[in-house]
């Protein structure tokens, strides 16, 4: 029972009003419902409930309870007129209230739970009112969404708006407003129900797509878990791929997924299919691709994609030599940008060779590769990739080389002056860094291509090796030179000198490969015995 | 192996930690990296499982769940994707076949999967009948990795006769370079990884006669750097994974003794995380399952004690390839 304050003064009344106000604020939803319920029943019913039964009530209250029970409309119907009259008389005499409301006794869990599993009945009234307001907002937003969808449907069918007499039309503003509504809805849904709406489910442009969530066997060894945004994009990707859709929005979707996971090969292949169907201009795609390539230097799908683009577009420029040259130059410019980050990137070098073949960028062409490669070797004489590309450029040139001649065999069609030029080139670079294995390998490769003996460069090799076997005066400026000298001796049949070179390599100049040098010595001995 | 017992503790193989590390990979589903590598999932299972077999803990991953996952990646056309919902591709199809070989489960492929014949057809259809090369998928990218993968998987299933071996061998020969190595395509720079794929493909079909073993062995042994580690190309940094690419090549031409064995042991073992397990590319870096496998295969090829023997051609335990192909020796 609430305390009786009716005897207090004005001050007490004020404070009680304030107190009651506070009570309302901090009262829970269930408490308020309970209080409302209590107002609809007589006090003795509440007392009976609290005390645990009729037996605990006074005689007068027991009578009052019986009267109250019997005056319920359903019960009254069973009584005769006379009995009813008697009952009302007794009610009057007992002089107790007979309040009766139409509401059910509230249950603490009848409001359900919120997204955190909290019982909403335990909310304060204030919190509850806020929640109701948000739900109201959500309902309004949904209604706006439905009218947007109707308008879009009418517009697509070319229907006329009877109120204006004009054809329905969806404006940029409509779409913008709907996007804003979806954002608000997403925030409300997340707040109220913990439901997440990703960027695609909130974008009206994707309304017609039913996303396909990942299916996987239960309890699989490598079950797949995604963060939500990625999962949502992938579920839309599956849907559009299954429908074989090729459209600007699909292109955007692939861009989004690639930005999250550029190594996902399926999405790249699907992107290429979109480009083919939509006939996206080559340079637009290349421009986008350049940015991605610089962001993900080690990624290899990017370069495969570029190669597919090249194959797809080449026929459209093949007829115009100027366009071919322009494209060759712009591709080389980007390749050089990539090499500024990593000058030995294997994917980029592979693409460069492909490009060279496709666009005919040989050493003697106007847009040829030779100057660029010389520049790269000058920048870093130890860049083996650049050396390898030079070899390809010089010895695969269709103008003078034998078609499909292997890199390991002599090619009699290559002019002698080119062989001479390449020997001189390798030797000049060896002078810069004698212990650099790339030009030494290159030199040997050139000799093979030219069908020349190793001994033809003996004088050059001997510049780097002096007095082998003489403990005091022995000088080796390059272990590669010493090795090549051994091979020259072997070629000339001078086994003792060859053996000595290998011995010294194992003992001093290249000890980590002792096993190899010893094997060379043993096999030479075995061959001569 | 006496000298190995004298290595300091940090240069002993942390077998238990490595097993735990590989087992833990599957329970990291809440980590960003896990979903970012989804396009490699089937490869990842192969790498982890092979490493566990080498460590002699083949039962450390559940066999039934492994089979279920592998089969869930298979498409109607017989090929496998990296994970359910990913496109079928040569690389994942090879991993699937290798996993099933490893756990002796080809019969499950017949019972519950699309069957060996469909897998063989998927692979064989990727061969370009004019050039002999193989594409990775219907989109036509061709390189020697796919050719090797095709030979590997088809030979394990006994279906090499589905493809034109002679043309493929001719293509590999065209990839040989002036320095003795092999590149990705004819004319491309020599690379240890490509050398492995070319040599292994030739080994599988018994066509090593065109290999200039001494020249190639020289180039491969030149990959060892003074710190003991191996690099993949001249003037590049050492990396544990080349312990496999370089060494397997040397093993196929019987020349592993051309490099300094103990120096390489030391380098690989210094790349271990001895507490949490796993092996990284270089000492002190983050470990991953790929480098863990190739560190272990490197150790195995050099005969490190306590490890199962690896087959340098198939990158599977020798016990597996002998069970399937019979003893070649």
Automatic annotation (TrEMBL), chain A:
Alphabetical list of PROSITE patterns matching this protein: PFTA (PS51147)
Residue ranges, compositional bias (Basic and acidic residues): 11-23
SUPFAM superfamilies tied to this protein: Protein prenylyltransferase
Region: Disordered, residue numbers: 1-23
InterPro entries in the record: Prenyl_trans_a
Keywords (A to Z) from UniProt: Magnesium, Prenyltransferase, Repeat, Transferase
Keyword Magnesium among UniProt keywords: yes
Tagged with keyword Membrane: no
Cofactor names: Mg(2+)
Pfam family, one: PPTA
Enzyme Commission (EC) number: 2.5.1.58, 2.5.1.59
Transmembrane segments: none
UniProt-listed Gene3D superfamilies: Protein prenylyltransferase (1.25.40.120)
Family membership noted in the UniProt record: Belongs to the protein prenyltransferase subunit alpha family.
Name by which UniProt lists this protein: Protein farnesyltransferase/geranylgeranyltransferase type-1 subunit alpha
Automatic annotation (TrEMBL), chain B:
Superkingdom per UniProt: Eukaryota
Domain Prenyltransferase alpha-alpha toroid: 13-316
Catalysis: reaction(s): geranylgeranyl diphosphate + L-cysteinyl-[protein] = S-geranylgeranyl-L-cysteinyl-[protein] + diphosphate
Annotated GO MF terms: transferase activity
Known cofactor(s): Zn(2+)
Keyword Repeat included in the entry's annotation: yes
Pfam families: Prenyltrans (PF00432)
EC numbers on record: 2.5.1.60
Top EC class of this enzyme: transferase
Keywords in alphabetical order: Metal-binding, Prenyltransferase, Repeat, Transferase, Zinc
Cofactor note text: Binds 1 zinc ion per subunit.
Function, as annotated: Catalyzes the transfer of a geranylgeranyl moiety from geranylgeranyl diphosphate to both cysteines of proteins with the C-terminal sequence -XXCC, -XCXC and -CCXX.
Family: Belongs to the protein prenyltransferase subunit beta family.
Descriptive protein name: Geranylgeranyl transferase type-2 subunit beta
Organism: Apiospora hydei
């Amino acid at each position: 029972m609430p305390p009786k304050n009716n005897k207090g003064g004005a001050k007490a009344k004020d404070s009680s009003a304030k107190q009651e106000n506070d009570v309302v604020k901090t009262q829970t939803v269930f408490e308020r419902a309970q209080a409302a319920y209590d107002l609809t029943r007589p006090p003795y019913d509440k007392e009976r409930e609290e005390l645990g039964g009729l037996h605990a009530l006074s005689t007068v209250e027991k009578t009052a309870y019986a009267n109250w029970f019997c005056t319920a409309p359903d019960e009254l119907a069973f009584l005769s007129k006379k009995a009813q009259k008697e009952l009302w008389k007794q009610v009057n005499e007992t002089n107790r209230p007979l309040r009766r409301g139409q509401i059910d006794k509230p249950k603490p869990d009848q409001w359900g739970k919120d997204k955190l599993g909290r019982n909403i009945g335990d909310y304060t009234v204030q919190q509850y009112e806020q929640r109701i307001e948000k739900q109201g907002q959500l309902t309004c937003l949904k209604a706006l969404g439905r009218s947007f969808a109707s308008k879009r449907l009418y517009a697509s069918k070319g229907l006329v708006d009877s109120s204006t007499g004009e054809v329905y039309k969806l404006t940029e503003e409509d779409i913008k407003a709907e996007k804003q509504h979806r954002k608000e809805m997403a925030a409300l849904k997340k707040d109220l129900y913990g439901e997440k709406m990703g960027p695609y489910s909130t974008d009206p442009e994707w309304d017609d797509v039913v996303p396909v969530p990942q299916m996987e066997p239960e309890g699989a060894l490598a079950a797949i878990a995604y963060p939500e945004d990625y999962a949502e994009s992938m579920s839309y990707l599956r849907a559009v791929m299954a429908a074989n859709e090729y459209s600007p929005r699909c292109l955007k979707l692939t861009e989004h997924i690639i930005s999250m996971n550029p190594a996902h090969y399926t999405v790249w292949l699907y992107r290429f299919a979109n480009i083919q169907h939509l006939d996206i201009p080559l340079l637009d795609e290349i421009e986008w691709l350049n940015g991605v390539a610089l962001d993900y230097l080690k990624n290899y799908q990017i370069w495969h994609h570029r190669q597919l683009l090249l194959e797809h577009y080449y026929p459209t420029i093949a007829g115009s030599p100027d366009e071919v040259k322009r494209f060759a130059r712009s591709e080389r410019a980007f390749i050089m940008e990539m090499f500024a980050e990593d000058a030995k990137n294997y994917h980029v070098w592979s693409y460069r060779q492909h490009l060279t073949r496709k666009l005919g960028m040989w050493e003697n062409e106007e847009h040829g590769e030779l100057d660029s490669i010389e520049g790269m070797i000058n920048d870093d004489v130890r860049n083996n990739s650049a050396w390898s590309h030079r070899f390809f450029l010089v010895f695969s040139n269709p103008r003078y080389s034998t078609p499909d001649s292997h890199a390991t065999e002599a090619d009699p069609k290559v002019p002698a002056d080119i062989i001479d030029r390449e020997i001189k080139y390798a030797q000049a670079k060896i002078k810069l860094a004698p212990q650099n294995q790339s030009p030494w390998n290159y030199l040997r490769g050139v000799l093979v291509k030219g069908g020349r003996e190793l001994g033809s460069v003996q004088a050059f090799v001997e510049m780097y090796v002096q007095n082998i076997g003489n403990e005091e005066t022995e000088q080796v400026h390059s272990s590669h030179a010493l090795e090549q000298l051994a091979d020259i001796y072997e070629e000339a049949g001078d086994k003792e000198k060859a053996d000595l070179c290998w011995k010294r390599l194992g003992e001093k100049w290249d000890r980590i490969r002792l096993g190899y040098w010893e094997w060379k010595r043993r096999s030479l001995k075995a061959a001569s015995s | 192996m006496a000298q190995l017992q004298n290595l300091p503790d940090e240069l002993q193989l942390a077998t238990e930690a490595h097993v735990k590390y590989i087992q833990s990979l599957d329970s990291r589903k809440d980590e960003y990296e896990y979903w970012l590598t989804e396009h490699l999932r089937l490869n990842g299972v192969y790498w982890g499982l092979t490493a566990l077999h080498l460590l002699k803990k083949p039962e450390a991953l559940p066999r039934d769940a492994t089979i279920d996952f592998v089969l869930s990646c298979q498409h109607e056309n017989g090929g496998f994707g990296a994970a359910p919902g990913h496109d079928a591709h040569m690389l994942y199809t090879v991993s699937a076949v290798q996993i099933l070989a490893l756990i002796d489960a080809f019969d499950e492929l017949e019972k519950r999967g699309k069957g060996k014949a469909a897998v063989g057809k998927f692979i064989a259809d990727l061969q370009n009948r004019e050039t002999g090369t193989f594409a990775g998928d219907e989109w036509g990218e061709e390189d020697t990795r796919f050719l090797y993968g095709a030979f590997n998987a088809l030979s394990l299933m006994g279906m090499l006769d589905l493809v034109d071996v002679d043309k493929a061998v001719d293509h590999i020969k065209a990839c040989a370079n002036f320095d003795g190595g092999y590149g990705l395509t004819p004319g491309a720079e020599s690379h240890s990884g490509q050398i492995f794929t070319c040599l292994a493909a030739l080994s599988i079909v018994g066509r090593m006669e065109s290999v200039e073993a001494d020249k190639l062995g020289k180039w491969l042994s030149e990959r060892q750097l003074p710190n003991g580690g191996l690099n993949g190309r001249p003037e590049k940094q050492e990396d544990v994974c080349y312990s496999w690419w370089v060494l397997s090549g040397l093993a196929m031409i019987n020349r592993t003794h051309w490099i300094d064995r103990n120096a390489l042991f030391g380098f690989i073992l210094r790349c271990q995380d001895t507490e949490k397990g796993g092996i990284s590319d270089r000492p002190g870096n983050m470990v991953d399952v790929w480098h863990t496998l190739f560190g272990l295969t490197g150790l195995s090829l050099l005969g490190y004690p306590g490890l199962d023997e690896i087959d340098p051609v198939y990158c599977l335990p020798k016990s597996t390839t002998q069970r399937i192909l019979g003893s070649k020796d």
